[in-house]
Amino acid sequence: MEIFFTILIMTLVVSLSGVAARILPFQIPLPLVQILAGALLAWPTFGLHVDFDPELFLVLFIPPLLFADGWKTPISEFLHHGREIIGLALVLVLITVVGIGYLIYWMVPGIPLIPAFALAAVLSPTDAVALSGIVGEGRIPKKIMSIVQGEALMNDASGLVSLKFAVAVAMGTMVFTWGGASVEFLKVAIGGLIAGVAVCWLYGKSLRLLSRWSGDDPATQTVLLLLLPFASYLIAEHLGVSGILAAVAAGMTITRSGIIRQAPLAMRLRANSVWQMLEFDFNGMVFLMLGLQLPDIIGTSIDAANADPNVELWMLFTDIILVYGALMVVRFGWLWIMQRLSKRVLKKKPMEFANYSLRELLIATFAGVRGAITLAGVLSIPLFLTSGEPFPARYELVFIATGVILFSLLVGVVLLPLLLRGVDGIDKAGHRRELQNARAVMASVAIESLHKMEERLENSSEENIDPELLKEVSLRVIGNLRRRADGKSDLEQALFAENLERRFRLTALRAERAEVYHLRATQQISDESMQRLLRDLDLLEALLIEKEE
Question: Per-residue b/e over 503-538, b at no fewer than 16 CB within 10 Å?
């Protein structure tokens, strides 16, 4: 019963955190609000305690979030920025593990070399979700955000695989060699991608079979879709390959394969709504869990530091700042090197970094905030070695990693808005123009198809439709489409007319809804009829409101 109440409380806090972030007199990003809320809940006054199981955390929260990110990531953009993403998600991770690992070993007393590599490995993954929470959607220029998001999707796997190697060496279960590690990494990465694509393909086949056998039941299809990221992750991990990359690959495949496009309308509508809700809830839970662990991590680390004659408490806090600074220096340095190499070596087809200004390089640098994967990774480090001895300096690893997460979020909150001042994120005017032009082209094609349909119905002996009625209906539908097609030449007028029409439609729709409730109250319609009418009106209103945004 206690677990049930804990889940309810956490869900309630996550739901209210969005409201709290909006009503506060000063602007605090949602992830920080959720971390603070978690820390307050863990305070002795409230006494909410949640045992953090890293393995359960990775299985429960990470697959659906990465699947959703992969779903939203266009494969064409991902492949277009493939060189940039590989440079950051693979090469930069390797540089970070080796360079920052040696720095931690040299700088922090009491941390041996292999545990230092383990700490550097968990610090290498970035978190695009936390970044969006800090700066908001659409604030970072698309050419930077696309690369940062792609990097975040891929470096989770490379960072955790590096951590796995470091822990295995520390435990004495593996002898490290560069050749063996490279082969193992390629096997894990490529195997994870193949597993994700295969599971997604099987899901598409099963969806078609279910539709054929039991009809288009949206509830069943949506539940199967919810299980897809977990199935991809667990099957891949069972096979000994990367479950994280499997979840990413499944999310990216489902859009490209046409599974969702060919799914029934009811399933598509329900799936989108469900995933939006889950994304918000799971993202919030991740940061809330981080906040809940903070008091225990800080308390345990302080006690351990006081008992350790080789470590002073103030040094631990200094180490957090120094390690974070080193991470940013390495990241900026690698971005600068790739920019120079792109300009001098890849002149015919330079990377995106070649066109970055100094400000954009700094934005891309500080956009590398740390988040959930870092927390889960560092807490997954075992307490004891195979010999039964405590894992060397584990409390220092956990404290520094947690501190770097918080410090990266705070630095991002302060610096990124300053760096983004005066920088256009999404070109809203251009986006509206693009949408209007697309709608005009779509309307032109639709008009041609309606003319052909009208001719076919006129010549059809089976339909036997009154020619005047046919003409009236055809003109009514075509007239609305023609206004959209003509809007291409006069964009401003078309946008104004469309907005005016939308306002009229919304007013009429809301009047219709009020009348539906009146008809039900006066017993003129049944409850079933009311629900059907309200569902239709809700769909229309959702479409009209979406056009407004």
Answer: eeebeebeeebeebeeebeeeeeeeeebeebeeeee
Determine contact, residues 109/311, Cβ cutoff 8 Å: yes
Give the range of the structural domain holding residue 454, as residue numbers without chain letter.
427-489
Nearest to 498 by CA among 511, 519, 478, 483: 483
Please choose, from the candidates 83, 224, 249, 80, the residue with its C-alpha nearest in 3D space to the C-alpha of residue 153.
249
Digit-coded pLDDT (tens) for 405-452: 999 989 988 888 888 887 765 656 666 677 677 777 777 888 888 888
436 & 514 share domain? no
Work out the mean pLDDT of the chain and round it to a whole number: 82
Q: Which two tokens stand for residue 496?
A: 């104004």
In this predicted structure, what is the pLDDT of residue 380? 85
CA separation for the pair 372, 61 (Å, rounded)? 9
Same-domain check for residues 316 and 372: yes
Terminal-to-terminal C-alpha distance of the chain? 43
Neighbours of 406 (CB within 10 A): 17
Boundary (domain end) residue, out of 447, 467, 489: 489
Q: Is 495 inside any structural domain?
A: no
Are residues 312 and 440 located together in one domain of the fold?
A: no
- The reply to whether 127 and 68 lie within a common domain is yes
Q: SS3 sequence, 14-62?
A: HHHHHHHHHHCCCCCCHHHHHHHHHHHHHCCCCCCCCCCCHHHHHHHCH
Whether 141 and 219 map to the same domain: the answer is yes
Q: Tell me how many domains the chain contains.
A: 3
Question: What was the pLDDT predicted at 284?
Answer: 86
Asked if 71 and 254 touch (Cβ cutoff 8 Å), the reply is: yes
- Token representation of residue 62: 């990470």
Give me the amino acid identity at 381. I
* Closest C-alpha to 166, from 234, 79, 244, 105: 105
533 and 401 fall within a common domain: no
- Domain end point (choices 450, 465, 489): 489
CA distance 107 to 63: 35
Q: Are residues 421 and 441 in the same domain?
A: no
Token pair of 96 as six digits = 């970070």
| Centroid of chain to Cα 78 | 14
Per-residue pLDDT tens over the stretch 231-253:
999 999 999 898 988 998 998 88
The CATH number assigned to the domain holding 111 equals 1.20.1530.20
For 384, the 3-state DSSP assignment is: strand
Considering the domain architecture, whether residues 235 and 146 belong to the same structural domain is answered as yes
Beta bridge partner(s), residue 384? 390
**Is 128 a domain residue?**
yes
pLDDT bracket for residue 51 (50, 70, 90): confident
Contact between 251 and 243 under an 8 Å Cβ cutoff? The reply is no
